Amino acid sequence: MSDNKLSTDAYKGVRDFYPEDMAVLRYIMNTWSTTAESFGFERYDASVLEPAELYKSKGAANEEIVDEQTYTFIDRGEREVTLRPEMTPTVARMVSGRRRELTFPLRWYSIPNLFRYERPQRGRLREHWQFNCDIFGAPGVAADVEIISLANQLLIDFGATPDMFEILVNNRAEMTALFADIGITNQDTVTKITRLTDRKKKISADEYRAELLKIVGDNTKVEQVVGIVEVEAGTNPVILGLRELGITNVRLDRTIARGFDYYTGTIFEILDTDKENNRAMLGGGRYDNLTSMFGGDPISGIGFGMGDVTMRDFLESHQLLPTNITKTAPTLSIIPAEPENDLASQKVAQLFRSHGIRTVVDIGQKKLGRKIADAADSGTKYALVIGETEIESGTYVLKNLDLNTTESGSIENLLTFLIAKT
Amino acid sequence: MSDNKLSTDAYKGVRDFYPEDMAVLRYIMNTWSTTAESFGFERYDASVLEPAELYKSKGAANEEIVDEQTYTFIDRGEREVTLRPEMTPTVARMVSGRRRELTFPLRWYSIPNLFRYERPQRGRLREHWQFNCDIFGAPGVAADVEIISLANQLLIDFGATPDMFEILVNNRAEMTALFADIGITNQDTVTKITRLTDRKKKISADEYRAELLKIVGDNTKVEQVVGIVEVEAGTNPVILGLRELGITNVRLDRTIARGFDYYTGTIFEILDTDKENNRAMLGGGRYDNLTSMFGGDPISGIGFGMGDVTMRDFLESHQLLPTNITKTAPTLSIIPAEPENDLASQKVAQLFRSHGIRTVVDIGQKKLGRKIADAADSGTKYALVIGETEIESGTYVLKNLDLNTTESGSIENLLTFLIAKT
User: Which of A20, A360, B23, B384 has its CA 20 to 30 A from that of B361?
Assistant: First the structure.
């Protein structure tokens, strides 16, 4: 062993996906994909590398994220490049780039990996995979209702019941009007209140009021703002539309603000009703001006993002992860009795595979008993030993590792048997 | 339009995947995945971010790539981090990290995106997706035969015939022995000859000899090396094993060297027989000492990588891309006659989706005729208009956009009709 051996750890804050974790990730991604396509959404993707300026445009993003949390560096050609921290600027860039050729309304989804330099903690990693769904070119309330009903359907498709989660809805334009009613019209002040209110559930009521006082300047205004954001009931057209579709676990929450400055109308979150897992597991909103940073008339958009880490936490806390997910084992394990039989075994495997049977050959340097035990442990259903005795006699034994039964015959007989079974 | 509007171009040398290109990428990835799983390979993944030291270890990689072509930067915590340029060091790290819990031989595959800072050109981008297959813990020739037969099967599964490609095999250990026979035993000299020979097909014969002379020092040795690398025929146990499996488009090529220093035994490439597309579209080899950089006894490995760009070039040049790949359109398009019917349409769509029918609602602000034309253009098979007349009468018309036929009835009637059709 060398003294200066390398660590086998992954880079800090990111994950290795060993096959059992990869199987869970694929299950989550496949479910996301199936639900999106059932609504007629088409999949797109882009590189993790984006020009840094994409995130620096006024109104494009959250300044805290850009200044403190992006992975931004200078490439060998002196370009400033960022590992995408979110997908919305990318999709806005792509839609703007082909606005003349695309047919609207456009429904697009993607499953990108996103990067943020943060202190790793539960549900927060430096890289995660995020399901993104967006509708472009449909400014009416029907699009808001559809995108939220898609998010709802997604959780239903994972096996969730409506008691397990709650949909919170708010509206930036409505908030602006409510603030205007109490004399707060300066956009910077509204933005500061919005960002503070977004953190309201994470800080104490006193701290919220103290911070608010710094922004609005007097206690009367503080109480008026608190009066607006702490309203307990209420509806808006989106909530009425969702109820029309039979979605009732939805309510207005004036504290919902979302982190991004580009939202203009409806904003929403889905919360796990399990208080142990109290982070928003999904969030999104309407952004009607984002594409204007690329020039031309703005194309309205509404969308949401949902991460794989919070998704898995939700599925695990509600015991919704199917137990058979990791069973990706092949059907048949062909076991050479001795290394001399390895090639003959590969040839037989080729025959079984050509009939659609997933087949592995144990070419390891282990004893026969160990190979059979490993095949059983791996979840493979059948094992077929190939040694000199079998080759000379032409008679082979197919073992059912689940039932501990056997079937004897020529390779052709056993192939016919297995084709019938699978 | 703002004067300082942002460009809609992607970062230089990477790609945006609009839905039609994404559909092709998904087809390629799904085929890779299906073939690998038919051989009993399990999927894994890791982050694109790796500690930079992973690629700097002696013998871990090709120095040219590390020094001149990686994306390496310092993160906000002063760690040196690299966007992975290849997957083999990552999989070696993961296997080493769990060597005590894993059952060998291990068959793993992944489809990572890889990054290299190179001048973009045909078949060479700064980011591409690469299929990686590796077998660990099987040092015998049977593993070499299996991994190459998997690569062969992959092309067959894409619809290729053996005349479309050629498998070239060589062996680093055999080359070392041949060089020793002519008195070249210094490992640095062998490495220099190997790297030069790897470029032999890209440079002139004179240039090759001139460069070789600089390495070996005299013309007699130059001719001896040329005598070794230009041998026209020959076999080795791997080639014999592949022929045993019926794979005959395989030959020994002593100029095959592969770029990575970590290869120790068998090395191989697959070339397109179409001379217009003469880059290796797949390459790999055996690396028996790579895991030793993490300490402990080395675990033998053999594997290959195959990129999506060269794969697509191959499929296109041989006309193997299925023509129906881009048809991811939903089955049914529900078309509100007026925006007032949007919500009622969403409700009907929800009903159809709950019966497994992929359904989209055109909530765009277009005229009815335009909406029907867009539905037909999108490849949707059926259209259902919902307006006041239909809602009042309770009778709706389902239009088959392919055949231009119609079916009338209540929503329930039409649902039953469509369930029977799909």
Answer: B23
Do the Cβ atoms of B44 and A17 come within 8 Å? yes
Contact check, Cβ <8 Å, B40/A329: yes
User: How do beta strands A382-386 and A359-361 pair?
Assistant: unpaired
In tens, the pLDDT along A204-252 reads 999 999 999 999 999 999 999 999 998 877 889 999 999 999 999 999 9
Tokens of B183: 């008195």
Task: Name the residue among A144, A34, A42 with its Cα closest to residue A94.
Answer: A42
- The CATH label, of 2.60.40.3780, 3.40.50.800, 1.10.8.60, 3.40.640.10, for the domain at B332-421 is 3.40.50.800
Interface predicted TM-score of the whole assembly (ipTM), two decimals = 0.92
The beta-carbon neighbor of B105 closest among A38, A127, A363 is A363
Give the H or E element holding residue A170: strand A165-171
- Range 377-406 of A in CB contact (< 8 A) with B: 377-378, 380
What is the distance between the alpha carbons of residues A416 and B275, in angstroms, rounded to a whole number? 43
Whether the full predicted model's pTM is greater than 0.90, yes or no, is yes
pLDDT digits (tens, 9 = 90+) for B316-345: 999 999 987 865 789 999 999 999 999 999
Sign of the dihedral through C-alpha A151, A155, A161, A164: negative
* B contacts of A5 (beta carbons < 8 Å): 293-295
Q: Which residue among A97, A244, A339 places its CB closest to the CB of B347?
A: A244
Q: Where in chain B is the domain with CATH 3.30.930.10?
A: 19-191+230-317
B48 touching chain A per CB within 8 A: yes
Distance from CA of B284 to the nearest CA of A (A): 19
Query: Is B237 touching A (CB cutoff 8 A)?
Result: no
Instruction: Please give the angle made by the CA atoms of A402, A406 and A412, to the nearest 5 degrees.
Output: 115
Question: Smallest Cα–Cα separation from A242: which of A266, A260, A221, A262?
Answer: A266
CB pair distance less than 8 Å for B346 and A142: yes
CA torsion A164→A167→A168→A169, rounded to 10°?
A: 180
Q: Chain A window 132-191: which residues touch B at a Cβ cutoff of 8 Å?
A: 135, 137-143, 145-146, 149, 153
- The Cα–Cα gap between A212 and A228 comes to 13
- Which architecture characterizes domain A19-172+235-317 according to CATH? 2-Layer Sandwich (3.30)
Give the pLDDT confidence of B204-247 residue by residue, as tens digits: 999 999 999 999 999 999 999 999 998 877 889 999 999 999 99
